[in-house]
Amino acid sequence: MANVASPLQYGDPPRLGPYVVQARLHTAPAGFVYLGQAPDGRAVSLAVLTRGAAFDAAARDRFITAVREAGSRDRQGRRGWLARPGRARGAVLEGAPEVLAFTGGGAPWVAVPYAPGRPGAERFLEPVMVGGTFIGAAHGPDFVPYWLTDRAPALPGPARQRRPLTETRKRVLLAALALVLLLLLVTSILLLLLFGRGDSEPQPRQLPPTVFVPTPPPTPETPEPQPSPSQSPSPTESGQRTPGQSPGEDLGDGSDL
Question: What is the CATH number of the domain that holds 86?
């Protein structure tokens, strides 16, 4: 079967695992085959189931079993006992290419070396479609799987991002306990600084209250002059004085009035 590369279409995966998807090589009822490039630059063939085949457990199991059996080749180059022609489920394909990488799960895919003109990863899509029974080829009407109408590629879901780190309840309680202990330590240090010094050192003796004693005003050195007291007549003196005569005035000798 000749594989002609065609451009990628809407819905095709940009990459599968470490492989970069470059073009379409083959379209089968059970899946798609892509041309990819490995990290070392080597060309690879990638097979992906359709979304309908990947949702069907039996079809997905046939694809995964064929890939695993192809990769479980022993040292002598022989395959398992299931390698018999006509076996539909679990059959090992004769001449299947070497499996480079494989991913199972809900959206399995396989990578094999790409060689132009030789069978590639599309060989693993053949067992997905039921083409016979355990007793021979199927007879009667053609068997059409119910999932054949869902033709979208089965792509792996987005990579689960790591959840942001959240503190557990135990860590929160430990942090709160450490904070309380730190507050108690700081409070103890402040109390020691405030009251510890007063308890260790003797209290200073209180001074007696100040008593203010009034003092007399200062005495001047030079006494102030005071008026002499007026002379009063002695008790021996009697009579009336002559008007207009002052004491000690001399009246003269025999002068008449």
Answer: 3.30.200.20
Phi, psi of 143, deg, nearest 5: -90, 125
Q: Residue ranges of the chain with pLDDT lower than 70?
A: 1-3, 73-94, 131-143, 157-167, 196-204, 223-257
> What is the domain range of residue 127?
15-132
Whole-Å CA distances, 78 to 65, 117, 124, 236:
17, 24, 18, 184
The count of domains in the chain is 1
* CB-side neighbour CA atoms (13 Å) of 142: 4
CA–CA dist 153, 159 (Å, integer): 17
Residue 175 in domain: no
Distance of alpha carbon 132 from alpha carbon 143, whole angstroms: 10
Contacts of 33 (CB under 8 A, 6+ apart): 3, 24, 25, 26, 27, 45, 46, 47, 48, 120, 121, 122, 125
pTM exceeds 0.90 = no
Is 199 a domain residue? Answer: no
- For the chain, the residue count is 257
